[in-house]
Amino acid sequence: MHRLIFGHSFVELAAVILLLGLAFYFLNKKKASVHGNTEDADTGTSGSLTTPKKTNSGGSSSSPTENCYEVFLSFRGPDTRKGFTDHLYNGLLDAGIDVFRDDDELPQGENIRPELLAAITNSKILIPILSVNYGTSSWCLDELVNIIDCKNNNGQIVLPIFYKVKPADVGHQIGSFGEAFHKRESRLLERRFDPTILKKWKQALLEVSTLKGYKAAGYEAKLVNSVVRKVLSELKKKFELVVSENLVGIDSHVKNVLEFVENKSHATLFVGIHGMGGIGKTTLAKAIYNKLSNQFEHRSFIADIRESWKRNGIHYLQNQLIYDILKRENEVRNDDEGTKFISSKFKDKRVLILLDDVDNIIQLKCLVGNRDWFSSGSRIIITTINERILEEVGVDYTYDHKEMDKDQSLLLFSKHAFRKDSPPRELKDLTCEVVSKTGGLPLSLVVLGSLLCGKKLAFWRGTMEKLIKVPPKEVREKLRISYEALDYE
User: Which Pfam family is one of those matched by this entry (predicted)?
Assistant: First the structure.
């Protein structure tokens, strides 16, 4: 009996020892695997373009697969992660650009490959930052192969940055870049690395070296600004305000204003556009804003200030401006705090600001105050019914937006009433009669044209009779605003 008990205890003891031994074995195996993966990251011994793994030593970027980014940064971490790449990344973010970078959004330990490929494929602009040790990372080189493939197959934009290396050294693997690359190549060949992958890497390096890019050979802040401006130029559509496609006669107005603005490129300018309600001031201002937007990292469009001020107060508008320029939410709690903040924090910012439908000088004093609130070269565009506000604030250029002439009125009306540039023959006389009642007011032409589109002749005649007595509701509202802005006399 005692022997049985002893035997049973011995078996239990042996089982415990065996389990401890297995646990120790697998723990050591896991450590060895992690060590092997880290070494593989440095040496690229996987020999594959399809299965790299994420480590802290690499220089790749990351994001969720469902997201599309505007810029993908490929870089060698130890060379530039905490320096130039970080400055460029934040410069792009400050300009409102969505950027893909590693260890920023991908959860720790997640397999990077699907996200990496998706980010490269879905990004509009691909920026490889080619530094001395870029060619020592298989992941960087794999990224570069995919970047060049996307350029050739999908037409994506590639903007290489040669960071303290020469393009020729990258393309032909010579100089300091070539020395680091060939050391790596020798180690790979000793391990019977797939030569076809080496060939793809070298071809990608050659091709990227021939592309027009940037050389880091001076002040890095200046280079970052140049790259950001270039990216903004390529992404211009993102920052453009919505403007109707059926515009008529606006090009000459835009040209007149821009001629003045472009001749004063280094000065901070206040540009005022005034005219009666419904005349098209906002549309003109938006078109000018869109023409200038790619020249500015910091932009803000504040719409319908007259109504927004009534509903929410001036500090609400100040917070909107602060968020647009600095990306800081609900920064101020009252008007005085907002004025003090804007006047002190924007001095080094070259801004493009459009303030739409201003009807009180206080709004301008609290939002854009003086020219010295902003960096030189800033542009402040103001639209208003009241020309006196522009005189009081002392704008540099005032543009009086006039009514449309007869031909432009007919063209704009036809675009909305008939979806083409001229009326059908049987409706031409009636169309001219309707257009003559609008007084060249774009809003009237758009509202009436849309109202009459597809309607029968009897409806047209009935509308004409009503129009003689009173204009449409939307037009009346705009005219009421213009009327109320007039002095009593």
Answer: TIR
- Written as six digits, the tokens of 37 are 């993966």
Contact residues for 453 (Cβ-Cβ < 8 A; gap 6+): 416, 417, 418, 419
pLDDT, one tens digit per residue, over 401-444 is 988 888 888 898 888 888 888 888 888 888 888 888 777 888 88
Q: Which of 362, 350, 349, 241 is nearest to 302 (CA)?
A: 241
Residue burial 350-384, b: 16+ Cβ < 10 Å; e: rest: bbbbbbbbbbebebbebbbeeeebbeebbbbbbbb
8 Å CB contact between 391 and 273: no
Q: What pLDDT score does 479 carry?
A: 60
Q: What are the pLDDT digits (tens) for 284-331?
A: 999 999 999 988 989 999 999 999 999 999 999 999 999 999 989 999
C-alpha torsion angle, residues 367, 373, 375, 380 (rounded to 10): 30
427-447 residues labelled b (16+ CB within 10 A) or e (exposed): beebbeebbeebebbbbbbbb
pLDDT of 84 strictly over 90: yes
Beta strand extents in 357-451 (DSSP E only)? 379-384, 397-400
Which of 37, 36, 41, 48 has the alpha carbon at shortest distance from 193? Answer: 48
Residue with tokens 């195996």, as numbered in its chain: 29
Q: Which of 70, 115, 143, 207 is catalytic?
A: 143
From CA 443, how far away is CA 413, in angstroms rounded? 10
Cα pseudo-dihedral 211, 139, 195, 198, rounded to 10: 20
- For residues 418 and 263, is the Cβ–Cβ distance under 8 A? no
The residue type at 229: R
Active site residue 259: no
Residues, the chain? 489
User: How do 214-216 and 269-274 pair as beta strands?
Assistant: unpaired
Q: Between 16 and 55, name the one with better pLDDT.
A: 16
Question: Left if phi > 0, otherwise alpha if psi is -120 to 50, otherwise beta: which for 68?
Answer: beta
